Amino acid sequence: RSRRRSAGDQSSAGSREFLDDDGVPACENSASGISSESHRLAACEPVARLAASAEQQQSAEGSIRVFELLRRYTADFVKHHRPQAVPQVQSTLAKLELCRTVALGGHLYRCDACDIECRVNNSCGDRHCPQCAGAKRADWLDSTSELLLPGITYFQVVFTIPDKLSSLALGNRKEIYDLLFRAAWKTLKEVIADEQLFEAAAVMVLHTWNQMLEAHAHLHAMVPGGGPALTADHCWIKSRRSHVKRCDGKYLCDSEELKSKFRKTFLAGLKRLHANGKLNLTGDWKFLQDKSTFDDWLKPLESITWVAYIEPPPFENCPPEQMAKYLARYLTGGPISDRRIVSHENGFVTFQARVGDKTGGSKETIPICIPGAEFVRRWSLHILPKGYTKTRRFGGYWNCRREKYIAKCRELLAAAGVESSAPDVMAVSNPADPIAESETNTSPCCPKCQTKMRGIGVEQKRGWRIVMKSLYRPHWYRDD
User: Fold this and answer.
1) Measured CA distances, 257 to 85, 192, 198, 264, 306 (Å)
2) How many CA atoms lie within 13 A of 254 on its CB side?
3) How many CB atoms lie within 10 A of CB 150?
4) How far apart are CA 265 and CA 179, in angstroms?
């Protein structure tokens, strides 16, 4: 994880890319919403007869999709990993299995020129689903782009907790993920205030995986390299490295100080959670219930260097919307993209994973082959608690302050002679972009003449309680 250069060197480089956990977008536009038999209305059959096996669909389409693998191996996962197939996990996997099937209703369309009818089934709308929720990403991208101002350098800051704590987080997701957000923001706010003397702001997105799909909790934060002065002076301060002129606006803060303070803040918060009895320490973690044992278990983490690094834009004059677009990829859809799946044979799934020192530039991609049930188990590790918010705004970007903060920034930038016109959101939310595509725009084209079809009927989507008590309920699903 060393950067192989000075810890404070954050100058832009034209050949760099944003560092992430996938290497390709996690959320692709992987399905059109129209069944392969769109020339006739879909029949109301049990789910077991609606979807072909992943092997059959692979040969028919020439590619393997994550949602197909989940449908194929979820039953094996529930059977062999029952303790991990808790109700929240089963509920999410059941929704994914029923996504875009007749169980959820749909819309009927007719082509007046060719007299062809087709049915477009409704999406499940779950944020974990690999084949829908594009509208949610588009909405987030639009609202986030409104926070960005030209003339400012935006940095990506990544905060990572050690794998030892990522494992503990699996049984305490809400508590530890909330602590991660709080500790990361407190660290950023204090380091920037002490060193740069301006008011900080940040948009943060939670990631819980690594390339192997294992537990690896960390945050990606988008932070402006400047802000209103914290002193009495009514002025704009651009982040810079002291006594280094070339780093004016291209340097956020001391990364070593960031690591040290983040480690201290997070561990202090974790000890408070333990003291207040807010950690679930049962099963394999029962030995940590005693305070002295817990403190001894944390002791080694106090002397190691935690991962917290800062990335400037990937190239000179990079539009700020580029980073927002990058973060939007991982808001929904799960921890792995279709393009990383290499093969699916004899009950085993092979996918690509990047290993090596990604922050130092040395990267290698290797194939990982695991049983299908294990693939679903690892994928399910990243299903968040119901209603949990994985993206949050802090400081000047906080919902109750952002309007005044942005207005103040525009005023100070104008006084400093920096152009601060509103960003061109349409340039980011291109309708042809898979991230910006709305799932609600499902009016299909005729498969024969390619003209827009006319809607002739709607079958309303029923509530999940009703669906899960119907014939469409997956045979492996248990709601106890």
Assistant:
1) 41, 10, 17, 11, 11
2) 11
3) 15
4) 9
- HEC letters along the chain: CCCCCCCCCCCCCCCCCCCCCCCCCCCCCCCCCECCCCCCCCCCCCHHHHCCCHHHHHHHHCCCCHHHHHHHHHHHHHHHCHHHCCHHHHHHHHHHHHCCCHHHCEEEEEECCCCEEEEEECCCCCCCCCCCCHHHHHHHHHHHHCCCCCCCCEEEEEEECCHHHHHHHCCCHHHHHHHHHHHHHHHHHHHHHHHHCECCEEEEEEEEECCCCCEEEEEEEEEECEEEECCCCCCEEECCCCCCHHHCCCCCCCHHHHHHHHHHHHHHHHHHHHHCCCCCCCHHHHHHCCHHHHHHHHHHHHCCCCEEEEECCCCCCCCCHHHHHHHHCCCCCCCCCHHHEEEEECCEEEEEEEECCCCCCCCEEEEEEEEHHHHHHHHHCCCCCCCCCCEEEEECCCCCCHHHHHHHHHHHHHHCCCCCCCCCHHHHCCCCCCCCCCCCCCCCECCCCCCECEEEEEECCCCHHHHCCCCCCCCCCCCC
Q: pLDDT tens digits, the chain, 480 residues: what are they?
A: 333 334 444 533 333 333 444 433 333 333 333 332 222 223 233 333 333 333 444 433 458 899 999 999 999 999 999 989 999 999 999 999 999 999 999 999 999 888 888 888 999 999 999 988 778 888 999 999 999 988 888 999 999 999 999 989 999 999 999 999 999 999 999 999 999 999 999 999 999 999 999 999 999 999 999 999 998 777 888 888 876 656 666 789 989 999 999 999 999 999 999 999 999 999 889 999 999 999 999 999 999 999 999 998 877 778 888 888 888 887 888 999 999 999 999 999 999 999 876 455 567 899 999 999 999 999 999 999 999 999 999 999 998 888 999 999 999 988 877 765 444 433 444 433 444 344 444 578 888 888 888 898 999 999 999 999 999 999 999 866
pTM of this prediction? 0.81
Q: How far apart are CA 265 and CA 257, in angstroms?
A: 12
- Residue 308 near residue 159, CB atoms below 8 Å: yes
Residue 199 · residue 227 · CB < 8 Å: yes
267: closest CA among 346, 176, 193? 176
State the residue for tokens 């994914």: 96
Contact 339, 353 (CB under 8 A): no
Length of the chain measured in residues? 480
Please give the torsion angle defined by the CA atoms of residues 143, 177, 301 and 187, in that order, rounded to the nearest 10 degrees: 40
CA distance 75 to 19: 35
